[in-house]
Structure formats: structure tokens, C-alpha cells
Write a structure and sequence with these properties.
The complex is a heterodimer. By secondary structure, chain A is an alpha+beta fold. In chain A, about 50% of the residues lie in helices and about 25% in strands. In chain A, the strands form 2 sheets. A 3-stranded antiparallel sheet of chain A has the order 2-1-4. Chain A has a 3-stranded antiparallel sheet with strand order 3-6-5. Chain B has a 6-stranded mixed beta barrel with strand order 2-3-8-5-7-6. Classes of the chains: A alpha+beta, B alpha+beta.
């Protein structure tokens, strides 16, 4: 069901609709590495994806707050290494489970898409 | 489970600690942009440029904050508060507009709610009996004899039980004095057939309706509370009912009524085959409970068989041949009568008004929001959510709707009794109708529904696809508003159409009432009071009763202002009563089944003059017509003309098997007086001296003609009655004017409401036209200015404006006339003397609408012609 919900995300410079569930999954994944503030999350996704995926910075916060409401992540205010006050998000136990579930679903989906794209003509 | 709790907790925090969450969001976004700026600076951008790019990367800050707030999951609730405040400001900013809109909607909602309550009370709410679906009444209303009842009961097979009942009046004497009670006299099985048991004590036992049974009575809950202080000890005690010591055996449950809410006592019939009444005139209603699993065909077969049996057993004269058309009527239809068409007609009419009010307010909002197009377009461009804007518009409309709902509820409460009184509901059933919680629910849902409906057109127009790109254009010119103009014009056409339909319906009823008023009633109702007087009577007290009546008439004549007074057994134009079969000495051809029937009307001297009935031949009834004297009769014109065509009726001898076997001489002919139906020919009627016929009857109607206000007689007559005999009671008191009005009540009262609704319709239509025309005038003001400056005549300008404004009116009038013609058969049943397609009525309706359209268009047109060219051009 979540796969049908679209949101704005940009791929490189080419604008493309991405799947909301994907953004959620990426956020959860990044946070599973370490607690991070919003800006850091966009940077991290940008880096890890070898600059292919750029999260629409504005929409990120809506997603973060929604995930918080759902109880998959939590947040607190901490000092950054540069002694700036920032809100850090961290993965909760429920979020870990959710990440697992989403990975599985993603694997199934990408496998299916792969198979379709892999069909040889004739 | 935990997640669910977490979610709720988060939302509660978002609501309660809103400020803190807003601050945090603010901080978070600021931090983000700072970090981004720093990154860009590090990449070599100048600080200003870095900040600009960082903001750009983030996107519309407000929009994303809005999105984030939505993610908190309390957006709707939170926004509602601010939307409500916004709506209130918007509505208060234009009090005239808001007031007009709220009142018109309120009228529509109030009327709809009130009529809905009537529909609910009369058609949907169950009767206070068990499984009313299987209860039916038999044909021949109030026309079954005891002997026939027993016959039908034994023969009919489709029923679990059949009961017989009739209505009666009783004088109940308690320590406090005598009161008149309306009641029901029934066979012992009535309550078993109804499936209702007593709240206290018991109902009738088998055999209590047969000779030799002790007199018993069952009380209604209301009477028990009123007269007996709700004392449970009343069961088993004896009360004085009609002068007889009668044992109270039961009290019915609260809310129970049968056959009408007026009925407060139930007594058993006395079905004695040895009496004349048992075989005499019919007066009972038969009601049966259809046995389980019996279908309509079986019922009909059974009825046909029973009717054939009746035909074998009795010789029926033509006038009341019971073997003809045997049928049963569902109990609800029987008790409540043909109220459905009238109620549905009014509900339809008021529904149209509501619809028009909606169209009107939508058009008004549309006009008004044209001023806001620019503002809204700018807000959309700046990233305000369209959904949010739509919600604001809808909130405003719903607030308007709810205010209107409040006004409507108030109106419904205020006018409910008047409305109920004006419906052709059997009088006492009006008391069972009330506005209750269903009305509240109905008005609330109507209010909200109305709000949503009226917001649709403006929303569509304001949030249409072209809005954002046309934003600036809409601000500076009229290009963006042609679509809106079209919607608005369509709304006005619809309004005018509905108004024509309403007005033509009302015009038809107005003409119907004129026609009915023109009917010759044969009497002069002005200044006449009719008072029902009851006194306990039995054969042994006949002399006393006769003395009481004689003294009463005598003393009423002596009251100041009374010109004449007399007694009669039935009030003209109100009570039908029964007919007697006659034998005419000069018409031996009319024998057996062909014997004529005539309405039976005992009167005293003074009755004819009190009622204004003209004696056209011979004489009326006089005091000299004594009990022991020669038997005489006065007949009406129909009687004389039908029985003795071309000859005088005077001196003819008739006899009646109904009440006396002696020869009766016709001594006079009076003009036809309407019996019960105002419409149709007056049937034959014969008047007899009271003393020679109704001697000893406990029920009489006293009619008195006065030069004063007739109601003023009520008090003196009441005290006279009490003074003459403490056991006597006064029942219904009505002026003859009331009686006559009641007789034509249905068209008269329907006319009132339909007229009210159509006036509303015309007003709404005119306001709609006014709105559209003034909007177009406002739009074209600069153009007018230029034209006036170039020398155009103001009159020509006015004509142009009016012509443009009249186009939707003309279309609406034509379309409305067509619809009115097509739908005319809806009102056909309420008309008399007027064709449903009556051209005069239609022309009157169409003309009124057209004229009010012209006036509505003239006002803004006049304003246009008065435009000051300079101002107009500068405004551009």
C-alpha cells in the first residue's frame, strides 16, 4: 500500500517521482548507522548513493516527523561536534523491525521489476 | 498496541505543546539552512549567494513547514480553530450579506426540518399497537351493525381476531364535578386484536360485551393522572360514568392511544341480539388482525365470500350495499387518513425553497469572492496548500450553514404548531407530533450538508486549474471571471425556474380557495357559535333531559346579544351523521331496496334562523311541534326536487323505519345546507322537530346567533349548562366561521404555506438576479464610464444592463413554466374548480417572477447609469 503513495524526491537533476516508502526506508537505514540530524541525513543519502539521490530537503522534515509519530524513530536535542544545538534522530526498536520489513519488501519488488526488465525479446 | 499508544501520545503533544513543537521546527529548519549555507560557503560561494542557494535548495519554507505540521497528524483539528476564526471574520465583515444568507438558508432548513418531523411522526413512527402491519379495518366505515359484526366474525377466516368499535362521548362524574370524555366503545376482544395489555389492572374479558355483564371501564394513562391523581388504588373502584356505577378495571400504558389520542376511556359494547340496536342502524368500525402467512389474494377471496354471505343474509338498499366492493384498509392509512399527499407536497415545496436558498447563497458567495480572487491567487502562488484554501472556503460555508441551522431550528420550534394545525391531520393526532431529537439531528445534518453544497460552486471556481497561472490576469481584468459568471447565471436560471414552479402551484391553490369560497353553503356562518352539550341519559330520564334542553334553549335566547338559538344533532359542514331510509306515501314505486335515504336532522325552533337557513316553502320547525302533536318534517331542496319533481312537497306523507313508524307530514322546504363535504351536490336531508325524534338523547349541539363576538357567548353558555344540571357537560365549542374554514382547511391551509414558500421563492429569485446584475455592472463600471464620457445616454445604458440581466430570468421563466405544466398533476388532487394546467395561474406566476426580475435588475442598472465617468476611468 505504501508503494502507491508518491512524494517528491529528486534524482540528480532529473526530477522524478519517487516512492514515499523508499524515502522512509532510506531514512531508517541511515539512522540505523548512527543518530543524525536532518541535514546530516540528506548529506549522508547523497554521499552513500554516490550523488545519485538527492532528498528534497523540505519534504525530509515531514517524513521525519511522521516517522516519529509512528514510533519508528525518536529524537532529542544534542550538541553537534561544532557545538551547535541540533535535533538528532535515532532509530527505535520498532524502527529496526520496520526497516527489516521494508528491506524485505523492497527486495521482493526490485526482484520482480528486475525480472520484468530482464525479459529478452523473442 | 504500543505503536498505537505512541501515535496518540504524539498527537496529543502536538495539540497541547503546539508552541514548543513550532519553535523546535523553526530551530530545526534554521539549523538545516545554516549547515547548508556553511557547506556552500566552504565550496567557495560568497556568503550572500550561499544563503540564497541554501534557501532555494530547501524549497518553499512555508510549504514544507505546513507539510511537516500535517505529519503531526493534528492538522485538521488545529487548522479548524484558525479557519473558524477566519470564517467568523469574513462573515462579520459583510453583515448584510451574511444576514441575508443565514436567514434565507434558515427559512429553508427550518421548514424542511419541521416538515420532516411531521413526516417522521405521521409516516415513520410506529403506532402504539403490536405489529401494525397486520392490522386492517373493513370497508363501510362506522356502518356495521352488531348483528353484522357477529356474522362477519363467524364467517371470516383470514384473521386471528376481529374487533368492533365506535366513538362515544361520556360524562364522567367525580367529586370535582362532571367532565366530558371522548371515548371508545368496543367489543371485548379489542385489546387482544391490538396486542396491547393494560399497564395496571386488566383489559376486557370475553363476554363483557354481552348482555348481563357488569359495566366496566378502562382509563387512559392521561385521564388516570388528570382525574385520579395516578392512584393505583383506583382499580376495582366504581366511578359514575354516564350516570352508571362503573367499575374501573384497568389503566392503559402511557403513550397508548386508540383509535385517536383524544380517546380517554374504553367501555365494552352491549351486543344483545334481543335489542333493536343490535339489528338497527350501523355505527361500528370493524378491525381485524390478519393471520400469519395470509396473503392479499387470500384476504380478498375471504372478503368476497363474506360479502356474498352478507348479501344472502340481509337485503341492502342501494345506498349502503355492503356487498359492493369489499376491501380492507391498513390501520395506519385508516387512522391517519390521506395526509401523505399534502405532507409530501409541502415537503417538496420547502425542499425547493431550501434548494433555491442554497443556489442563492452560492451565487452571493461567488459574487463576493470575485473580490478575493487576487488574494487567493497570490496565496496559491506563494505556496499555500490548495486543500487548505478549499477547507477555508468550506469552513466559511459550513459556519454559515450552522448559523442558518440554528435560525431554522428556532423557526421550526416557533412555527411548528401552526404548521401541524394546517395539515389535514385528524385534529387529535397533531398532539402526537413534536420536534424531537430526530429534528435536531436532521437540522444539524441539513446545516452541514447545506454548507458543503454552497461551497461547491465557489470552490470549483476559485480553485479551478487555471487559477494559479491566471492569477495576475484575474487581478487586473475580468478575463478570469467569465467562468464564474456562467456558473452564477446558471444558478439564477435554476432559481427562477424553481420559483415559477412554486408560485404557479400557489396560484392554483389561491384560485381553488376562491372557487371553494364561492360555493353556496346554504347558511350564514357569521356570528354563530356551536356548542356540544352532553348530559347523561337513559330511557327513564327522557323527560328530565327534554326539560333540560328546553330550558337551555330558552335561557340562551335570553342572554344579551343572542338573536336566536336552537338545537341540532349535527353541525353543518362538519358532521356527516347517519341517514334514514324513508317510505313515501305518494311514491309506491320506491319500495324495498329502492327506498330513498335522507340525512337525519332533528332541530328545534330557532335552529334555522340561528344558522341562517332560508325557508323557501311552507314553514320551519316551530315550538308548536310538540312530542304528542302531529308528526311533521321539513325537507331540503334536493329532497323536494328529487322526490316530487315539478310539484310541491308540502302536505306529502313520509315515514321512516329508523326512529318512528308514524306518518310524517312535510310542512316546509328549506334551502340546501352543506352536509359535510363542501364539494359536490348536497344530498337529501330531512329536518324533524327535536321533541318528536331525539327525545331523551343526551347529545345535542346548541347553535346561537349573536350580534356580538360569538366566542364571548362561550362563558355564559358554559355556566348556564352547569347551573341547569350539574351532571351536564360542555364539549367542543366552535364558531361556525371556524367550522366552515376547517371544512375547506386543506386547500386553505396548503395555500397559506405554498404561498409563503413561493413568496420566499420570488424574493430569493430576485435577490439572485440582483446579485448577478450588480456583479456584471461592477465589472463593467470602467466601460460604462468611458461610454458615458463618449456621450452615451444613461437611459440606453440602463436598458443594456437590464436586458443582460433579464436573460437568465427569461430562460428561467420559460423553463419553469414548462416544468410547472409537466408537474401540475402533483397538485391536481388539491384543486377544486381549477384545471391543474390553468393558464391564468401560470401566467400570474411567470409574470410575477418576470416583474420582480426587472425590478431586481433595475437597481444596479440605475447605479450604472449614475456612474461618474471620471471616477470610473480612474478606478481602472
Amino acid at each position: 500500500m505504501t508503494l502507491l503513495l508518491l512524494t517528491e524526491m529528486t534524482m540528480g537533476t532529473e526530477s522524478a517521482d519517487m516512492i514515499r516508502g523508499t524515502m522512509d526506508m532510506l531514512i531508517l537505514k541511515v539512522l540505523s548507522l548512527e543518530p543524525m540530524h536532518g541535514w546530516g541525513i540528506t548529506e549522508r543519502i547523497h554521499q552513500i548513493s554516490e550523488e545519485t539521490l538527492q532528498v528534497n530537503q523540505g519534504s525530509l522534515y515531514a517524513a521525519l516527523h511522521r516517522l516519529t509519530r509512528q514510533g519508528w524513530i525518536d529524537s532529542d536535542w544534542r550538541m553537534t561536534p561544532n557545538r551547535r544545538r541540533a535535533r538528532y534522530y535515532l532509530l527505535t526498536r520498532a524502527g529496526e523491525k520496520q526497516l527489516g520489513a521494508e528491506r524485505e519488501q523492497w527486495a521482493r519488488l526490485s526482484h520482480a521489476v528486475e525480472r520484468i526488465l530482464g525479459l529478452e525479446a523473442g | 498496541m504500543m505503536r498505537w499508544l505512541h501515535d496518540i501520545w504524539f498527537r496529543i503533544r502536538a495539540l497541547v505543546a503546539r508552541d514548543r513543537m513550532e519553535r523546535d521546527l523553526e530551530d530545526e529548519v534554521r539549523f538545516h539552512i545554516e549547515m547548508e549555507t556553511r557547506k556552500l560557503e566552504a565550496a567557495g560561494l560568497a556568503p550572500d549567494e550561499a544563503l540564497r542557494r541554501a534557501r532555494l535548495n530547501f524549497g518553499g519554507e512555508d510549504r514544507f513547514k505546513e507539510q511537516t505540521r500535517e505529519a503531526w497528524g493534528v492538522g485538521l483539528l488545529h487548522d479548524l480553530g484558525s479557519d473558524l476564526r477566519f470564517a467568523a471574520r469574513q462573515l462579520l465583515a459583510r453583515p448584510a450579506f451574511s444576514g441575508l444568507a443565514a436567514v434565507t438558508l434558515g427559512l429553508g432548513i427550518g421548514g424542511t426540518v419541521a416538515l420532516f418531523s411531521v413526516v417522521h411522526g405521521l409516516m415513520l413512527r410506529p403506532l402504539p399497537v403490536e405489529d401494525e402491519q397486520s392490522l386492517v379495518t373493513f370497508w363501510s366505515d362506522f356502518d356495521w351493525r352488531g348483528a353484522e359484526y357477529d356474522f362477519v366474525r363467524q364467517r371470516a377466516e383470514a384473521y386471528d381476531g376481529i374487533a368492533a368499535y365506535s366513538l362515544d362521548g361520556y360524562t364522567l362524574r367525580t367529586e370535582a364535578g362532571s367532565t366530558l370524555q371522548t371515548g371508545t366503545v368496543s367489543s371485548a376482544g379489542l385489546f387482544d386484536v391490538l396486542g396491547v395489555s393494560a399497564a395496571l389492572g386488566r383489559t376486557f374479558r370475553a363476554g363483557e360485551d354481552r348482555p348481563g355483564a357488569e359495566p366496566v371501564v378502562i382509563l387512559s394513562h392521561g385521564l388516570w393522572e388528570r382525574e385520579f391523581g395516578a392512584d393505583p388504588g383506583v382499580i376495582g373502584t366504581r366511578v359514575d360514568l354516564e350516570g352508571r356505577r362503573t367499575t374501573v378495571i384497568g389503566v392503559m400504558p402511557r403513550g397508548f392511544y386508540f383509535p385517536n389520542p383524544e380517546s380517554s376511556v374504553w367501555t365494552p359494547l352491549d351486543l344483545d341480539p334481543d335489542t333493536r340496536e343490535y339489528h338497527g342502524n350501523g355505527w361500528l368500525v370493524l378491525m381485524g388482525r390478519v393471520a400469519e402467512g395470509v396473503g392479499p389474494e387470500q384476504i380478498q377471496d375471504d372478503l368476497t365470500r363474506v360479502a356474498a354471505g352478507l348479501g344472502e343474509r340481509w337485503d341492502y338498499p342501494d345506498a349502503w350495499d355492503k356487498t359492493r366492493n369489499p376491501h380492507v384498509v391498513p390501520i395506519r392509512d385508516y387512522l391517519l387518513g390521506e395526509v401523505r399527499p399534502a405532507v409530501l407536497l409541502l415537503l417538496g415545496a420547502v425542499g425547493l425553497v431550501l434548494l433555491m436558498a442554497c443556489a442563492n447563497v452560492a451565487a452571493l458567495i461567488l459574487t463576493r469572492t470575485s473580490d478575493r480572487t487576487g488574494e487567493i491567487a497570490v496565496r496559491v502562488t506563494l505556496g499555500a496548500g490548495r486543500a487548505r484554501l478549499a477547507r477555508q472556503i468550506m469552513t466559511e460555508s459550513v459556519v454559515l450553514g450552522v448559523i442558518a441551522g440554528g435560525i431554522g431550528m428556532g423557526l421550526a420550534v416557533a412555527a411548528f404548531d401552526v404548521l401541524v394545525a394546517s395539515l389535514p391531520v385528524p385534529a387529535s393526532f397533531g398532539s402526537t407530533l413534536a420536534l424531537d431529537w430526530t429534528a435536531l439531528v436532521a437540522s444539524l445534518s441539513l446545516a452541514v450538508g447545506t454548507g458543503v453544497v454552497i461551497s461547491l460552486a465557489p470552490m470549483r471556481s476559485l480553485l479551478g486549474g487555471r487559477l494559479s497561472e491566471g492569477a495576475l490576469r484575474a487581478r487586473s481584468s475580468s478575463a478570469g471571471s467569465t467562468g464564474r459568471q456562467r456558473i452564477q447565471t446558471g444558478l439564477v436560471v435554476g432559481e427562477v425556474l424553481l420559483a415559477v414552479v412554486l408560485a404557479s402551484g400557489a396560484a392554483l391553490l389561491v384560485r381553488t380557495v376562491q372557487e371553494i369560497r364561492a360555493i353556496d353553503l346554504g347558511l350564514e356562518p357569521a356570528g354563530v357559535l356551536a356548542v356540544d352539550v352532553l348530559i347523561p341519559s337513559d330511557p327513564t330520564s327522557a323527560d328530565e333531559v327534554a326539560q333540560f334542553h328546553a330550558a337551555l334553549v330558552e335561557q340562551v335566547r335570553g342572554l344579551p346579544g343572542v338573536e336566536s338559538a336552537g338545537l341540532i344533532n349535527r353541525v353543518p359542514a362538519r358532521d356527516g351523521g347517519w341517514q334514514a331510509t324513508l317510505t313515501l306515501a305518494d311514491r309506491p314505486d320506491l319500495e324495498g331496496d329502492s327506498r330513498p335515504n335522507a340525512f337525519y336532522r332533528p332541530v328545534t325552533s330557532g335552529t334555522f334562523s340561528a344558522l341562517g337557513v332560508e325557508v323557501i316553502e311552507g314553514r320551519g320547525v316551530e315550538d308548536a311541534d310538540r312530542a304528542e302533536g302531529r308528526r311533521v318534517a321539513v325537507v331540503n331542496e334536493t329532497f323536494a326536487r328529487t322526490m316530487f319533481p315539478g310539484e310541491s312537497a308540502l302536505g306529502r306523507i313520509i315515514s321512516s323505519n329508523g326512529f318512528t313508524r308514524a306518518d310524517i307530514e312535510i310542512v316546509g322546504v328549506v334551502r340546501n345546507v352543506v352536509i359535510d363535504d363542501l364539494v359536490g351536490p348536497v344530498p337529501m336531508a330531512a329536518y324533524y322537530p327535536w321533541s318528536q325524534t331525539l327525545r331523551g338523547s343526551g347529545y345535542a349541539v346548541l347553535v346561537a346567533k349573536t350580534s356580538l363576538e360569538p366566542v364571548a357567548l362561550a362563558g355564559p353558555i358554559r355556566s348556564l349548562v352547569r347551573q341547569l344540571d350539574s351532571r351536564a357537560a360542555v364539549g367542543r365549542i366552535e364558531t361556525m366561521d371556524q367550522v366552515v374554514d376547517d371544512a375547506m382547511a386543506e386547500p386553505l391551509r396548503l395555500r397559506f404555506f405554498l404561498a409563503l414558500f413561493s413568496v420566499l421563492g420570488i424574493v430569493l429569485g430576485s435577490v439572485g438576479v440582483y446579485g448577478v446584475v450588480s456583479y456584471s455592472v461592477q465589472r463593467r463600471t470602467p466601460e460604462f464610464g468611458i461610454r458615458l464620457a463618449l456621450g452615451a445616454a444613461p437611459g440606453d445604458l440602463m436598458a443594456t444592463v437590464v436586458r443582460a440581466g433579464m436573460l437568465p430570468v427569461a430562460v428561467g421563466v420559460v423553463a419553469g413554466s414548462v416544468v410547472a405544466l409537466v408537474a401540475s398533476n402533483v397538485v391536481a388532487g388539491f384543486l377544486f374548480g381549477v384545471e391543474p394546467t390553468d393558464p391564468t395561474s401560470l401566467a400570474a406566476a411567470a409574470g410575477t417572477l418576470f416583474a420582480s426580475g426587472v425590478i431586481a435588475a433595475l437597481v444596479p442598472a440605475w447605479r450604472a447609469s449614475a456612474t461618474d465617468p471620471g471616477t470610473a476611468i480612474r478606478a481602472r
